[in-house]
Give the backbone structure.
Amino acid sequence: MFDIIKSDLDAALRKDPAAKNKWEIFFTYSGFRAILRYRIAHWFYQKGRKRIARAISTRTRNKFSIEIHPAAKIGKAFFIDHGVGVVIGETTEIGEDCMLYQGVTLGGTGKDCGKRHPTLGNNVMISAGAKVLGPVTIEDYSKIGAGSVVLINVPSHCTVVGVPGRIVKIKGEKIDDLDQHLPDPILEEFKRLNRRLTFLEEKLKIHTCQYSIANDNDECPTMTQAEMAEAIKDEEKPLE
């Protein structure tokens, strides 16, 4: 266990450019201290002392706002940068030399039993606020972008971004033929209203107001009440 803790310390020093030395990391880095407590809790959990393990993990969560279940399996050279808000579930498996940023969740979807949390390969990086949910696998050297929600397996050497997560790069090369369209219900509603407004303006023979993004004119012509009533009357007629 001491060799693994040493590898975690070396990983923090190597991956964080702000780190000055190992003493600073050991005494002041909440991410490293949470990992250290996890290593101890995991040792007790493997020995069947689950109450002690859970007590350690609970105190770690209360002190550092980082929750790592003692049953999770985490390889050596693991680093959590900043760390606040990180959650790692019970059946999570993490390979060697992985890195997580603040706000990352390695959790379940609530509908799986048994193995219900993610599996990370070696040299995986998950950026701030990303959520990897369910028994999915993120293979070696892949990266998950900040704020992404990943619900599918990710091959090795891939970069994933978006909600839901989409693969945008494989081995550093962009994926050009991937459909990156994500539904935006608010934008779709604005488009529907704009189409309806355009239809009504055409029926009423009103030019688009100068403040509209669809306008080509500089004026907003007005209509008399009689003209408007006549236009509305024409609109109510059934279309041929």
